[in-house]
Specification:
Number of helices: 14
Largest sheet: 8 strands, antiparallel
Shape: globular
CATH superfamily of the largest domain: Glutamine synthetase/guanido kinase, catalytic domain
Number of strands: 12
Number of domains: 2
Order of helices and strands: HEHHEHHEEEHEEEHHEEHHHEHHHE
Radius of gyration: 21 Å
CATH architecture of the largest domain: 2-Layer Sandwich
Distance between the termini: 46 Å
CATH class of the largest domain: Alpha Beta
Strand order of the largest sheet: 2-3-4-5-1-8-10-9
Strand content: 15-25%
Length: 366
Amino acid sequence: MSENDLLNGNFVAWMDAKEGKESDIVISSRIRLARNLQDISFPYFMNAEKAQQSMQEISEAWRQSDNGLLSSLKLLSFNEISAWDRQILVEKHLISPEHGVAEDANRGLLVSEDGSIAIMINEEDHLRIQVVLPGLQLEKCHELAQIVDDELEKRLDFAFNEQRGYLTSCPTNVGTGMRASVMLHLPGIAISGQRSRIFQNIHQLGMAVRGLYGEGTEIIGNYVQLSNQITLGQSENEIITNLGIITRQMVEQEKILRKSLQQDMRYQLEDRVGRAYGILTHARVINSNEALTLLSDVRLGMDLGIIQGISPYLINQLVVAIKPAHLQKRSGGEMEAFMRDVKRAEVIKEILFKSKQSEVELGKEE
């Protein structure tokens, strides 16, 4: 894998809906493990010397590994890639927004060719091991994350306490150090007006509900990130099992509401989907929030058979391709907000037309 393949190509593994269960509703599954080195201050308190030591020890453990999964990863040092490219990694869900802001030789990313495995170095913790796959695949994500974790732990001494478990910068991650999450597309729940009630119930079950890019981001386009809030006192298997149960309940609720909408509001729903598709394929200027909202309607129409001829992959690709760094990368230069809105409209038409627009049909479901 070359660096350009990752930063210029649109594809990352979680976009491929054909590979995941319940992928019409569950966009992706993610497991993230937070780990810190025993004898080095946590990142918030590290000086440059300790940050360099952390980077060196982690890099050396990776280089020395004879495990094919770990040795196949590519190391990106953040002082060697541009701010745009770091933001592209954020927009592809490969690193956190906080990790992408720093141009630092002692920050970096170990990442697989398809982006399914990404290890952030010197973010909030020394190591954040992340596995992201399409659809509902929490167990598979956990399996891969455990392989990487075990292989690194052969050569690195992780901060661990017998009573508290793995020690992390944020107290809410202490214990397993694991965050399990799923990205869901829930237009049925939103259109039916039940979002507030359902999300309140989820909070009471110890789960967090966030927007497309996690903590601190609002819910736009009916894309919701659901994750565990508690890591202490629960095993990794318990966390995954609980999240899986709640996710399946959400999926079933969403399916019921979609069916109800299609039965009770067929013409209104077809009109909504058709208008969304019409705007997306003819607009000259469109902002990010409007684009995500309309893409949500088109995706719903595609899942219900109202629109035929568009693949889920193209919708997933568009959700990323319309983000600011991707737009500016395509244009080859920095753009003001208005010109990004112009470019976004162009990109949406370009990608949607890849779906063989002559075969796209509206309102054909009987």
